[in-house]
């Protein structure tokens, strides 16, 4: 009930169980027992190295493209990590021009709320396709829809731009409130079908629906809608339409405790105009849609997500007693140092593994709903880097044993990182549960850095510091690589190397001296 993917929850749970079972060979207690020689303290040894972590906050430069899942909502109660608010700005427009409501041969009167047996316009509804949710699904959210200021310049809000998460279109004349709704986030409610009675159209589910004021409906069906009569009617061309309706601002009003993840390009995200039409002397109920354009039939729609974090009163702003805080993009990170690696003599490294454990927090109204990130990622700090954007680079050798890559080959995006991505089954970094069903149940992650460490002790490679974080995208030398997390989905309080409560972060090494 905390993080869901509608329509695939059972399937996802099955694969997660299968994946976890299949990867137990990298558990810290077995360390691949069938592949690694037993520790006998003579030929094969095992050591645990302390890790020292330093907290950091990202100066975020994340951009979202229209195909991403966009966060919408408010996290208002998270004492550990603070509050989060995320709004959407989006253009929904006709898929063809000149645009008309209904089909050829339909009769629709320019009347709002006609009688039962009369043609005319009934209502207009803004709909959002919800693909996932993070947070407390038991608390409803208040969402409002505003019509954007039509004076927003094209350069401030355009379809071929991907804006930073701190961006807001400049609206000098202000917005116009069109409608609000209190929306239930519970999966059983979102999964309910919405049926369009009499329209002979398919039903929909997993959709947020906000009815807009009839004054906006009048804007849509006014004198300028008839493209055969109005030479400058807003439905004659894309530019004329955007001059009259720049876009919509869907605003989270600071209620609830979670984030919806909206697909702008899904057909269920649309502006529905409902009406009664006469066709062959029969009254029929139907609707026409304005949707997000990906550029196939008209110019690409503009979109932006504005996400704000406020950590000023959160525990992560002051708590440094053996703990670190990892918050998904736009969030935080930790720089990890393993000084003992520099003193390890040349050896055969059978296994080198970093273990990261959650520090449980007892807060039954928050913690069961604020899950950790599905994936963490580990790379290295390039202290000797002199090329712009080269402060960090991939871990050497271990990200994907089946694919060659070169962290220092910044001139080629094809060599710098693997086109096949990270092999999580080998490298690790996926969320796991420890001591399930006990009072000490908590989450943890492991990272396999065996070959990376081997090259430190054998070839004298630099003992780089590591960076631990929960990215949405990975940025090396200006190249962007997608990662498996959603924006702002997940956060976790972990033990530092000096944690005294039994949740120390450490590196465990199984090796044989040469």
Summarize the structure in words:
The structure is a single chain. The protein has 7 helices and 26 strands. By secondary structure, it is mainly beta. It has 2 domains: 9-61 and 329-513, no CATH class; 69-310, no CATH class. Strands 1, 4, 5, 6, 7, 8, 9, 10, 11, 12, 13 and 14 form a 12-stranded antiparallel β-sheet that branches. Strands 2-26-17-21-20 form a 5-stranded antiparallel β-sheet, with helices on one face. A hairpin with a 2-residue loop joins strand 23 and strand 24. The radius of gyration is 27 Å and the shape is elongated. Mean pLDDT is 87; it is low at 7-34 and 197-201.
Features:
single chain; about 525 residues; mainly beta; 2 domains; twelve-stranded antiparallel beta sheet; five-stranded antiparallel beta sheet
- In the predicted model, the low-confidence regions spanning at least 5 consecutive residues are 7-34, 197-201
- Major sheet size, sense and barrel closure: 12 strands, antiparallel
What Rg, in angstroms, do the CA atoms define? Answer: 27 Å
Shape: elongated
- Beta-strand residue fraction: 25-35%
What is the total number of structural domains? 2
Structural class, please?
mainly beta
| Helix segment tally | 7
C-alpha termini separation: 52 Å
Q: What's the pLDDT, averaged over the residues?
A: 87
